[in-house]
Amino acid sequence: MAESHTLQVELVAADRVVWSGEAVRVLARTAEGDLGVLANHAPLLSVLVPGVVEIEQTGGERVRAAVSEGFLSVADNRVSVLSEDSFLENELDRSTVESELTAAREADDQAAVLRAEAKLRTLQS
To answer: Which tens digit of pLDDT belongs to each residue from 8-30?
Structure first.
């Protein structure tokens, strides 16, 4: 059997499938640190922390998304990124995110600060 060089990736939020397709690489931030997944990666289940998920599609285009807490699962060249909230780069507005960050800091809500900072990092190309 020939080895596969692609991954089937699903980026899922609590209320929707945010992105689904083929990719050659997925980068994500987990509780253990930054993680890169390529084809034929060993099975894995890890806890996501608020951050940026980057998916490199088979054609070389990149999909960037901000995610909150969740899980990343890898098995049989399938990657599932499951997050309570997930936003593609083109769904984010810088001024809105900056307002969210300011409000989170004023409320001393550290979890909301981390989520807003992840959104801002997503907007930095």
So the answer is: 999 999 999 999 999 999 999 99
Q: How far is CA 10 from the centre of its chain?
A: 10
Q: Count Cβ atoms below 10 Å from residue 7 Cβ, excluding itself.
A: 24
With beta carbons less than 8 A apart as the criterion, state whether 67 and 80 touch.
no
Instruction: Say if residues 12 and 83 touch (Cβ distance below 8 Å).
Output: yes
Angstrom distance (rounded) from CA 4 to CA 41:
11
Question: What tokens were used for 4?
Answer: 């596969």
Is there a contact between 50 and 68 (Cβ–Cβ < 8 Å)? yes
pTM to 2 decimal places = 0.90
d(CA 7, CA 35): 15
Cα 23–chain centre separation? 14
